[in-house]
Amino acid sequence: MESIQSIKQRFEIIGNNPKLNRAIEKSIQVAPTDISVLVTGESGVGKEAIPKIIHSLSHRKHAKYIAVNCGAIPEGTIDSELFGHEKGAFTGATSTRSGYFEVANGGTIFLDEVGELPLTTQVRLLRVLENGEFLKVGSSQVQKTDVRIVAATNVKMFEAIKKEKFREDLYYRLSTVEINIPPLRERRDDIHLLFRKFASDFGQKYKMPTIRLEEGAAKLLLKYRWPGNIRQLRNIAEQISVLEENRSISEFTLNGYLPSSASTSSLPVVIGGEKKEGDFSNEREILYKVLFDMKGDLNDLKKLTLELLNNNDSKKVQEENEHLIRKIYGENNKNETSDKNNSMEVLQLPETRIEPVVHTPIQEDKYHFAEEIEEEETLSLQEKEIELIKKSLERNRGKRKIAAAELGISERTLYRKIKQYDL
Question: What is the pLDDT of residues 129-163, one digit of tens each?
Fold first, then answer.
């Protein structure tokens, strides 16, 4: 059995991270068997190296090795690509074609981005894993194949299963052994090593001196989160190698090549988050509170109106009236408050009395809480006002000053209401 270090040299894997070493070790151990392997990890971490290691150390190493990117093949043709098709099976099928499972018989197939497979294709793949049988598109003849399957995905499989985008039985068939590749942000000690390797490779490729990072740039390199992992690091090393004339790279120069979004952040980033129904709970609570407050204000207004009509103390009436106006309109403009206060003065006469609102309780039963039914009389304050003004003026023979004192309002207010109601 080959050592981890020799495998790293053979496949040009750089780094000494314990998680990376464990992934390589599992690959070496599982290679001699025919067990299905699922490689997991974020996009760009280098998952494609694992199936190559497994194939090269297996008894199938002299047979075909085919890598298939399932996410790059259109849904309508992926069955034909994987399993082949018969002539005339669909429009454009002018001849019989062998699929990858037929061509790679005796070898290894690497299904990259297996989480992107359509559900119908997943059913066909499950049959291959269970008994090595498949059907060409448009054919009824069962064919046999002996293929080792290594799959890889950057999809969170349990979430995909929960959303019914991936079959649970297929997941357990593929992941007999699961190998996880850690993201670059969990391999901080390997980042500078990888950058120097890429810089050296591109210097030789483009026949240019190798770029070198200054101390500040090296620190920035380690602080960056690298959401694109090794693929992103390699691309940036290539850009700098080609575009920069000065081969000593400063922190300022390197920062210009890093995406501006949270280049030094070490916090996790949520991508593709879905807004759920529960996210609106706070908005609903606020809306309910506003509605209840409005209902309370209306009830206060009704209550105060009845008290004003039944209360003989004009000073108390004005104070409560002013308090309600300030509650409704605010206290920012005192002049407006004063005008509203004057306009809402209510007429009173000792002999005029309106019965208060009657509250009738409902008996509480097994299923409902007790409620109150308010029986309210239909009141028109304007009609009552006009009637009271007329009576007071008639009783006092048109003397406004005396009538105003009797009604508990100012003479100016009485004059305005006479003009308003055309009395």
Answer: 999 999 999 999 999 999 999 999 999 999 999 99
Contacts for 254-260 with beta carbons within 8 Å, 24 or more apart? Answer: 254/213, 254/217, 254/220, 254/221, 255/220, 258/220, 258/224
Q: Which pTM does this prediction carry? A: 0.61
Question: Are residues 230 and 184 in contact, defined by beta-carbon separation less than 8 angstroms?
Answer: yes
- Is residue 22 within 8 Å of 48, Cβ to Cβ? no
Q: Which of 380, 381, 379, 388 is nearest to 418 (CA)?
A: 388
Cβ within 8 Å of residue 118, ≥6 positions away: 75, 78
Structure tokens at 76: 């309508």
Distance CA 296, CA 327 (A): 11
**Residue 200, SS3?**
helix
Amino acid identity at 152:
A
Of 112, 150, 154, 107, which Cα lies nearest the Cα of 129? 150
Burial of 107 (0-12, 13-18, 19+ CB in 10 A): buried
In 250-313, which ranges are continuous DSSP H helix?
251-257, 281-310
Q: Alpha carbon of 185 to those of 191, 229, 257, 282: distances in Å? A: 8, 8, 18, 35
Other C-beta atoms closer than 10 Å to the C-beta of 16 total 13
Residue 325 has pLDDT above 70, yes or no: no
Residues 98 and 60: beta-carbon distance below 8 Å: no
The tens digit of pLDDT for each residue in 204-228 reads: 999 999 999 999 999 999 999 999 9
Angle of helix 4-11 versus helix 49-56 axis, rounded to 10? 110
Encode burial over 333-344: b for 16+ CB neighbours within 10 A, e otherwise.
eeeebeebeeeb
Whether the per-residue pLDDT at 374 is higher than 50: the answer is: no
- In 140-161, which positions are buried (b, 16+ CB within 10 angstroms) versus exposed (e)? eeebebebbbbbbbbbebeebb
